[in-house]
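Changelog entry

Holo records now carry the ligand SMILES as an explicit input line rather than a separate metadata file. Below, a converted record for zinc ion, shown in the new format.
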Amino acid sequence: MSRKQNVIRLYSGFADGAIAVKSEIEISQTSGIPNFDIIGLCDSSIRESRGRIRAAINASGFVMPKGQITVNISPAYMHKSGSAFDLAIAIGLLIVSNQLSLPTGTDIYAEGELSLDGKVKSTPGSAIRFRLLNNTNNLRIVFPLTETDSARINSIEGYPVSTLKEAVETLSLPVFPSRKFILNNTENIFTPCEEDTDISILKGQEKTVRALLIAAAGWHNLLLVGSPGAGKTLAGRILHSLLPPLYPEEIEEVYSVRNMYSDSNLLLSSQRPYRYIHQLIAPNKLICNGLNMSPGELLLANRGILFADELCEFSGRIIDLLREPMEDNRINILKDGQTYTFNSNFIFIGATNPCKCGMYMEPSHKCSCTPGARHRYLSKLSGPFLDRIDLFSELHMIDEKALKNSVKNNSENKSPEYRKKVSEVWEICKERYKAYPDKNNGTVIEDNLTELFRVNSNALESAVKLSTINGYSARGINRLLRVSRTIADLNNDKDVENKHVMEAQLYKNRIFNQWSKNK
Ligand SMILES: [Zn+2]
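Structure line, unchanged by the conversion:
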């Protein structure tokens, strides 16, 4: 005797790294011994959803279907985890048991976690999953009310719900009351960066002030060397204050990564990220927690700043991990035999003491380190790592009283003016790098940089001469020309001239070269 079988289908999604994958959920109900099974390479977090779904269905005034229930989540060859399938499975169970009837030919996409009382909650990664849903016609989309920002940045058309009951009532309507979500005005989400940390605070540190401006304008990595209390950390915050807001397309990218591990209370903001790391950071906090793919600092700093404090105290392993994104602006993460690539395009700013006691550069203090100890301290940073840094600047201790006065009397607000200048250079670069999307002076990859940068013959001759005298590597000349290009852009000069190269070489790595020789 054949059993009666009902099968229905609807859609949900999951994030595989930064890639959104559409899932078809099939639900079959047959008469027989009661059973509720979920299959399709799902981990325990999905199998546990059975308890939540059953409770939510009952609490919402519906009845858990009888008989043998099998839920199959495709694609069956990909690992899935998390609670985002709850809502879709619950809706499917109500359809298969005829408690929810839909107009003919209706397709459904649903996602969200269910609580035992039938509420619909956010789950991490919705901003990535919603990428599946823009330009989708004839699909009734329901998602958690708390995910409207993810809906806005992906321009989707759907209906946000706060309970299972609301989802069922809405889906059963003859005309689905969907809303179009759009990010129409980025102005109202603009949060100024670090307004309380104005660049004028760095009085008496002109070289660093200029280095910060060049770093922001050309997207250059920067290393600050100075005594404890000289204002290195402050300089990092100030660099942040010089960066113009995220472009609209970058807002989506930054928000999606933050949304991968955080499910609520995320502010949609055009402020660029600022991430701070110190020497005790674990490798998985830096890259990614492979278990649930929660992003590490290298991903969270994308489109903003990564500040590494006490850089010479970092382990060699961490320094090596920093190298890949500093060179390629992206990182590859291996999980379950598969490689995931993420953008990791930040301005790196490192800060270090000049030696273990920190006083080597201060004329009024005596350094207690031996030349050998100084060398060992600085040699933590390898040549290949230092090669990836465009600008070096020293910071000196300012008399505490003078610093307090300068902060107290600081009525100047110069960062906005500097930020405007940075913004102008970015516009020049956007035009120059039309054929190199997403690139700027610090990151563009091109065999013939001299031509692309319009380096004139005098300037090129100077650069070559300087490299012979100082022993720059090919990469060293390359970095020199990049900084020269930014200085020319700050001056609104079309060509890179001798004077730009002369200024750029002031920011070359002298400290490490010179001191490491003083063994
Ligand atoms: Zn010392």
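Spot-checked after migration. The chain has two domains: 5-180, 189-515. The chain has a mean pLDDT of 88.
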